[in-house]
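_Per-residue structure_
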Amino acid sequence: MRLSRRLSVSMALISAVLGPILWFSFIATSPASAQVAPTPPPVTLTVPTTTVPGDGKVSLGVDLGSLGDGGTTTKGEKPSKSIVILLGLTVLAIAPSLVVLMTSFTRMVVVLGLARNAIGMQTVPPNQVLTGLAIFLSLFVMAPTLKQINDTAWQPYQHGEITQSQALKAAEKPIKTWMLKNTRTDELNLMLNLSKSKRPQTPADTSLTVVIPAFVLSELTTAFIIGVMILLPFLVIDLVVSSGLMSLGMMMLPPVFVSLPFKLLLFVMVDGWGMIAHALVANYH
């Protein structure tokens, strides 16, 4: 009897606690109580159309020409920034070859290297110093030609006055004229014969594939001639020192150790580096 009362009391308490919880959960999950989020109104895109009378065709009112011409430029139109950046990267990539083959850099660096070897020092001044000096001397020599290329080719192309092909032709003319002025006739005829191409009527009509190697050969020949003129005074000093040591019986002493101070003294007294730099630049002017 007591057990049945306890069970009834326990069931009443459970129903009193779980009843409200089940009721509220049923209300919260019922479809009627769910709130529907408002849907935004549909967006309608209006495209202007143009109806061509007669054929019934409809064309979109969009000018495809305004979307660009794929990167090409025409006369009267400035080149895009992407084309300018691409040209700049291309020039930087081939700049070492252009400097060596189409400027006075080759003659400068060869003469400076021969002068260093004539003194008898193989690593002083270092190669970086000689190369830097040759680059700046080449800039002094090439400044008028570079200015002419900038005025006749690059600036008009930047302002859209000429096309890319016209700019290349305008830039080719000054540099070819300068190279032909410093190219020997023998080397030019040699390259014309090797190329087996038709001989042009004027030197200005010669292709760059013929002018560039002929110019490099001429520069090497001239650099070696200048090098011989620099080596002769130091050769005389070596002969005098060697004969003096032989007469004194000091055959075991290397003549280079004795002649090197005299060579340096002579080179400093006559301002050797200044004379060489002045002669190289003035030779082109």
